[in-house]
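Lab notebook, bench 4. We co-purified these components, and the gel suggests they stay together. Before we commit to crystallization screens, I want a quick structural picture of the whole thing.
Request: model the full complex, all chains together.
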Amino acid sequence: MKSVTNIVKKEVRELLTPATLIPIILMAAVFGSLGSIIGGAGDEATRPPVIGVIDQDDTVLSVAACQTLNTSAEVVYNGSSVSEGLTSLDEHGGVALIIIPSDFTESIMSNQTGELQVIWIMKGAGLIDSLSSSSVDMILRSASTSISKSLIDQHSSLNSTIILSPTVKSETTIFKGKEMAGISPGTIAGFLSQQAFVVPLIVVMVIIMAGCMVISTVGTEKENKTLETLLTLPVRRSSIVFGKLAGSAIVGLVMAVIYMVGLGYYTSSIVAGAPVDMARYGLTLNALDYVLVGISLFLGLLSALALCMLLGIFAKNYKSAQTLTMPITLLALIPMFAVMMLDFNTMPLVGQVLLFAIPFTHPMMAIRSLMFDDYTLVIGGIAYEAAFAFITMAIAVWAFRKDILLTGRLRKGDDKGPLNPLWRALFKINRGRPR
Amino acid sequence: MTAIEIKDMVKSYGSFHAIKGISFTVNQGEIFGLIGPNGAGKTTTLRVLSTLLQLTSGQVKIFGHDLDHEADEIRRIISYLPEDAGAYKNLTGRGYLEFIAAFFGDGRRVEEIVRKGIEITNLGERINDKVETYSKGMTRRLLVARALMIEPKLAILDELTSGLDVLNSQEIRKLAKKTASEGTTILLSSHNMLEVELLCDRIALINDGRIVEIGTPDELKRRHGCSNIEEVFVKVVA
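Here is the predicted assembly.
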């Protein structure tokens, strides 16, 4: 027993280090914050939705429907003008303007379904954002039930199918300046989520696989004692860094492609049955959009590899290199979940800043942004990714010239060079070299 | 011509001073030995000279090139063999030599370098096997070959015969002698006093980051009244 205890103690001491704990703590903190953001959106969805109502019919049946709407939702507009109604909803953060047309009762009484026109105001394209429209859908079903009840109370001789389902929805969704007739926010969010599932997953797989390669290549060089030889060969440090980046990127991409082929079959079998043609609503990409997505993906990968190269400098061997992949995995998973669940534009400012700062976010949300012609966000993201990749690579090249590459830690004497202030700030080193 | 010129070289890690202001010169074609106890600063000195570690202060010139400002030029004329060096395990011995040779030339020059490397390794057909299948001694021979096949102006060899048996060690020493006679300057460090005495034209004894003795083997033995360098070492360090 004593021997086992001894081994357990040794294992715990070896495995439970700051290097293993800090990433886990950070991951817990970030996911906690993400959870509170998602939770906040969920709470909002449980509150009565803010709507506007235009009753152009003004009959017993339409009034019954309006009463249900007034009871279940927060009605901020009750008038006759569509434009005024939309303005009022915009001011109050409303989700839908419900119009009961003048022939509503007449249609029902002639054994036809009465049309309820719904103009949806979609705020964001995340799955969470579509929750409030689901609430309105439920209220509209209640309104329909109220009409059925009213018809039954009147001992109506109408067709039983009409009595049980007297209304039909006619939907138009307004989102980011696009007016899309005949489609609901839920359908749009569902379609965009499919896009938002595949692209982030590709990005995450590529980043994790290629990133692990880069970090491991430095760790393995140290473990196999080949790094010292490499560093004394007549080759520029920048060539070593770029060579390692390119080699790892190629291997990582090959592995990711193999992985994605399998995933592609899986997802295509799921989306094959999707009935809605989104191209009809202008939700497609043109050639320029694809170029921008490609650039964003490339720069995202480059940023990840440069960051991994920088982390790899701290790897002592292959094992510690594996531990160092944790922050990269974390940085890839955060935007992946965020992009799947939320819309960047409807997130709190802190969340937006956090997501924007992670370079991998941009390729993940590029397709969605480009579908709604949000070029500012995409081009801004590309500019940020390029700057991030360039600066990180410059730091990696600089660090490859320093003792830190061999010692694995920054000593007080290692602060020479143009990036000195940044490096010192990172490691809180305030004293210069002795000379 | 002076191959290495070191003036007041200091190497510190924070408050720890590994090298405390050493000065010495090594002449072209000379085999110069650096000996000292563990932790004396031998490997640190070799790592600084091979451009792996940065100088804290002082001045080092290798064949006239300033170490602080002309590291790229220095890497073209030196070859460094670390004590515990390894080779890429997934490459064959030949593949490893070809990989290294490619940094020093193109086409026929690479072929020449590799041919010389294979000759030095004396591994026969095993040169085509993967490095991961080699014994420690075979790997060391491959690494020695890697270091000497390019005919560097300065070879910095840390524990040249580390991991080699007596016969192989003797062969490698002969090779080092031959390489020096062909014009390569050799700076080596070793714990094997016999090896140092046999190989080196001059020896520097380093202790606690300082050079405490320097001279030819005969001068050192005479100066301390000893019959061999091991006795000199014990006397000086103790």
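Residues 92 and 129 of chain B are 5 Å apart (CA to CA). Worth comparing against the SEC data before the next meeting. The two ends of chain B are 35 Å apart (CA to CA).
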